[in-house]
Design a protein that fits this description.
It is a single chain. The protein is mostly helical. It contains 7 helices and 3 strands; from the N terminus they run H-H-E-H-H-E-E-H-H-H. Strands 1-3-2 form a 3-stranded antiparallel sheet. Strand 2 (about 90-95) and strand 3 form a beta hairpin. Helix 1 (about 15-40) crosses helix 5 and helix 3 packs across helix 4.
């Protein structure tokens, strides 16, 4: 008896789809590697920057660990370990969550806010250099359109048929 479930027909990528997929991967890796390298040069990782920037936008510069993990697409345990390292560097602090006895709040410290303020100009320049300034306005609009489409829930019928 097989434990792999019913056999499915594989819809292999045609040459155009294969080229698009590989191009997407190359661009994603190149842009992320460039911005990560530039952030590392100023002492932050991409996750550090995302945590700092999203906390700076929150009321009281505070978020629950769960909300932050969901925003970053991380597990709570992974973010908790990362927050421990950031806390050790003085960028944030953790406090008990008054609404969840098992949870905690991540709070941006003054040192963390200063690190973000110092990093933001270099980061936006990096984003411009690696992506924005290399594309035409219609390219940027196409990226937005693609992102919106990929963020939409996929209807069940479409996933079975494999259509967008």
């Amino acid at each position: 008896m097989s434990t792999r479930g019913p056999a499915r027909t594989v819809r292999w990528l045609n040459p155009d789809e294969e080229r698009a997929w590989r191009a997407f991967l190359r661009v994603t890796v190149a842009v992320q590697a460039g911005t990560a390298r530039d952030l590392a040069a100023i002492g932050l990782s991409e996750p550090d920057y995302e945590v700092l920037s999203t906390l700076s936008e929150r009321p009281g510069h505070t978020s629950t660990l769960g909300e932050q993990a969901d925003k970053m697409g991380w597990s709570r345990s992974r973010l908790s370990r990362h927050a421990t390292r950031m806390e050790g560097r003085g960028l944030l602090r953790r406090t008990p969550d008054p609404t969840d006895g098992r949870g905690c709040l991540l709070v941006l410290t003054a040192q963390g806010l200063d690190a973000l303020k110092n990093a933001a100009p270099a980061h936006v320049e990096s984003v411009r250099r690696h992506l924005i300034d290399r594309l035409a306005p219609e390219d940027l609009a196409a990226i937005e359109q693609i992102a919106r489409r990929l963020e939409e829930p996929k209807p069940a019928a479409a996933s079975d048929a494999g259509s967008p």
